[in-house]
Design a protein that fits this description.
Blueprint: E1 6-9, H1 13-24, E2 29-33, E3 56-59, H2 66-76, H3 80-87, E4 89-90, E5 95-98, H4 100-113, E6 117-120, E7 132-135, H5 143-153
Parallel strand pairs: 1-2, 1-7, 2-6
Antiparallel strand pairs: 3-5, 4-5
């Protein structure tokens, strides 16, 4: 079983980290990312682990903030995302903010150097003969994959919450 690759659908933060950790554990990994084949309204480029709404990974305070403590735990676990964030860090007070383009490029470079196969293609649903699959597709999932997921989980099984970058639409505001 371990000689078959793990397929990861989604090259964002979670998919990139999963690919890295699996490769470190000696597993073959194929990382599928739909961009640039299928662009999204929020992404500016085609790089992996692209931060779209902010360049901040929030607080890096390990003593007084749970997010900062999680950063430290991830560093100790050999996190690719935190290693690359630290290497591309820009001044932001107590927050861990990065140069977004340099961060994305470094993540992708390290994944390639680790022997991870990166395929630029849209996956509308996992292929039947894939033995192990991680779906790491976030709020910008393509419509066909989102529809497939909905058939497997039910609509109430899909949720996304982004407290950092809320979007308020003008037509939802009562200006009266």
């Amino acid at each position: 079983m371990n000689d078959q690759p793990v397929h990861i659908v989604g090259g964002g933060l979670a998919g990139s980290e999963a690919a890295w950790q699996l490769a470190r554990a000696g597993r073959a990994v194929i990382l599928h990312e739909m961009r640039p084949v299928r662009p999204t309204p929020a992404h500016a480029g085609a790089g992996l682990a692209e931060l779209v709404c902010s360049n901040s990974l929030r607080s890096d305070d390990t003593y007084y903030n749970a997010v900062g403590l999680l950063h430290e735990e991830m560093r100790r676990a050999g996190s690719l995302i935190l290693e690359c964030a630290d290497a591309t860090r820009v001044p932001a007070g107590g927050a861990l903010a990065v140069d977004r383009e340099a961060f994305s490029a470094l993540v992708e470079s390290k994944l390639r150097d680790a022997g991870i196969e990166i395929r630029r293609e849209e996956i509308p649903e996992p292929i039947a003969d894939w033995n192990t699959v991680i779906l790491a597709s976030g709020p910008l999932t393509s419509a066909p994959l989102a529809e497939w997921l909905k058939t497997k989980t039910g609509e109430d099984g899909l949720a996304f919450f982004d407290a950092i970058a809320p979007i308020v639409h003008t037509d939802s505001i009562d200006f009266g």
